[in-house]
Amino acid sequence: MRDMRSPDSSTSRGLPGQGDRSIRNIPVPATHRRVAEQEHNTYEEDFTGELHLPKKKKSHWFLWSAALVVIVCAMGGLLLSTVFAGANVAITPRQESVTPPASIQASANAPAGTLAYQVVTTSRTASTTVKANGTEQVSRAASGVITIYNNYSTAAQPLVTNTRFAAQDGNLYRIHTAVTVPGATTNSDGSLNPGTVSVTAYADQPGASYNVGQTQFTIPGFKNTPQYSKFYAQASAMTGGLVGQEPAVAPADLANAEQAMKSGLDNALQNAAATEIPKEFLAIPGTLQVSYDDVARTPSPDGTVTLSQTAVASADIVRANDLAAAIAKQTVQGYNGEAVGFADPTQIAIALASSTKATTGVLQLQLSGSPTLVWQFDPSTLKQALLGKPKSQFENILQSFSPAINCTATTPCKASIRPFWISSFPSDPNKISVTTGQ
Fold it and tell me: Residue 84: pLDDT above 70?
């Protein structure tokens, strides 16, 4: 029987010379085998050890870290530029050593551009107890220290000897020495701070009716003038007035007591005059004057008498910067009234050459020494001029303060701003410090 199988069946079975052409036996190129083997091997290696999960894409943490660093740096820079920002400015004022004129005139009512002096007063009271020695008839006027106020103007006002003062009850009192009431000073708001002087006033008549407690006085001589309401005086008490009998004190005891009280008062007043002079003023030696009240007597039941005495000291003083300006006017070429002071006030010596104070209110001062004048400027004004300005404008700004600020190669003016990358001065004046070198 004829074999009904396909003629190719023998071939499919791998007859000689034909090869096995089944899908399993189809030849594979060597290169393909190597790739397949590699993939196979890789697959096997992936599962021969630990289980390896598929790798994820790289994280962007380093980008966030870098951004955070930039933000921190920016915030730090901002913090340094605001909280810790500041500027230091070192300024050298103009200075000039001069030989002062031999003498110079000072007046109580000095016109603008001339030297004025003022009067400072102080008072002290001393007391002691002595044994009474019977009684005696007396006729004594009341007295007390009064403080006179000038709330009228900045000009000083001289008052002559025997100027009258009227108490609130109408009683009259007089001063026995001429005084000059200093001019008022101007406050920052434009109001006046009265000038004052203290002096002893005496009742116009003796008697106890002039003994009063704290009271205020007007000056009748100013009546019907604008000064009347602006000049006044005050006293804590007016005492000692008496017409009649009082405990007597032996002359020797009274003399010894008065001497002891005056000695103590002199020392107390000299110390007070030295300490109570404002620091911006210089005392004029030779102008200290002391006036003593009458000795008041107060009897005690135990047969003793308390003696008390008040003394008032007055001295003339001159503002140091005013004296420096007066010297500069006569010794510095080109001086135009700028504010000046002394580098060391002890380098100038003052003495009283002559005085017509009682009649004209003029003092002639003798000067000696070798003072150094220093031109003045207001540091707060300089700060305001620098606020927010670029450092490159520093020198131009300083020129607007000429001639008070003198910057040269040997005496430079410097400015440093922190942090170092900031190129402008702070906008807060409290963050700018100004120091001066001399």
Answer: no
How far apart, in whole angstroms, are the C-alpha atoms of residue 290 and residue 312? 6
Q: Which helix (H) or strand (E) holds 384?
A: helix 379-386
Which helix (H) or strand (E) segment holds residue 106: the answer is strand 103-107
Asked whether the beta carbons of 332 and 373 are under 8 A apart, the reply is yes
Helical H runs in 207-319? 251-276
CA atoms within 13 A on the CB side of 363: 26
Query: How far is residue 105's CA from residue 354's CA, in Å, rounded to a whole number?
Result: 10
What whole-number distance in Å separates Cα of residue 351 and Cα of residue 102? 11
Query: Residue 415 is encoded by which pair of tokens?
Result: 């400015």
Cβ atoms < 10 Å from Cβ of 143: 23
Per residue in 332-348, pLDDT tens? 999 999 999 999 999 99
**Got the DSSP string for 190-240?**
S-EE-EEEEEEEEEEEESGGG-BSSEEEB-GGGTTSGGGGTEEEEES-BB-
Q: What percentage of residues in the chain have a pLDDT greater than 90?
A: 42
Tokens of 192: 């006046």
Average pLDDT, the chain: 82
Q: CA-based diameter of the chain, in Å?
A: 194
Are the C-beta atoms of residues 350 and 286 closer than 8 Å to each other? no
Three-state DSSP class for residue 50 = coil
CA 308 to chain centre: 42
pLDDT 10s digits, 226-252: 999 999 999 988 988 989 888 888 999
